[in-house]
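With this grant's support, we have settled on a layout for protein records. An illustrative entry appears below exactly as we store it:
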Amino acid sequence: MSRVFMKGCEAIAEAAVRAGCRFFAGYPITPQNEIPEYFSRRFPEVGGNFVQGESEVASVNMVYGAASTGTRAMTSSSSCGISLKSEGISYCASARIPMVYANISRGGPGVGSIQPAQQDYLQATKASGNGGFEMLVFAPSTVQEAVDLTYKAFDYAQRDKNPVLILCDGVIGTMMEPVVLPEMKTDEEVTALKEANKDWACIGHKLDYKNRSWIQPGQWLTSKMQSVNEEAAALYDSWEKDVQVEEYMVEDAEIVIAAYGISARVSKSVVDILRREGIKVGLIRPITVNPFPYKTFDNINYDVCKVVIDVEMSIPAQFLHDVEKGVKERCPIDTCLCSGGNIMSREAVIKTIKKWIKTRRG
């Protein structure tokens, strides 16, 4: 397969098209604007439907409606825009409607800044909307990984009848890299994917409580709502098999960096730099941040490892809470943080590590 040079947001959109996505509704917000722009140009070529809604709230509910017909559907936004979409996403989770969305994160809280950040971690992994629903959440660290995860996300969503989130930061969304694009699904394959949903999709079924083809979210009867929640909890427990994580030079590491997304990409280069200086550093990079790969932290040799460094573009730290849960107080944890649109640098991570080494020796 040939490689093409693409911006992250556009590559995500193209991956969605190739996965069979044929409906997108969204609203402009930096730094994800290239996603809806790309869909608006690309969909006429494949018979898809693009809508720029009058708001984020309208857009996510359009996706809710389109996805309810069994059509592969997607939306995207950035941070504060995702907050506006949260109710509609919760409705999709309640009604067990498959949809995919991308958060190209920016600084916050509130409107914040238009520059990249990782300040939506808790929202993405712990509280994406009311009702305690969960989703598979993937956090790519390269444009290629964003492409691959977006392509697969539609299969996960259809398998589980549940929303799936691609959690990117603004760096990955706006940077350009060479990527190998996945195979384009044929019109026949796209039709077959939609046909596979006909037992539940809103395509003219008789209204009843056994068939969720009607778009009402979940079951309003108390006796039914609990059973819906119990079914969902069983689904979430099944996701352990889908967890993805990268371990890099962890076996003999005296210092282990824990990071995700662009911070992990920066940190991986730090590992290479410090290894050349004789400092034994390793990296744990969760690719699936929900469910979180807690068990991976059991692979650290705590007789050798003296500290875990949490590296993230969030102040106060958010990813840190899951790192703490994984480490289980088996060694100290330090942090290297920035936020509000400041991008993590190799220099900052190296400085944190060397300061920790100097303090320990002192």
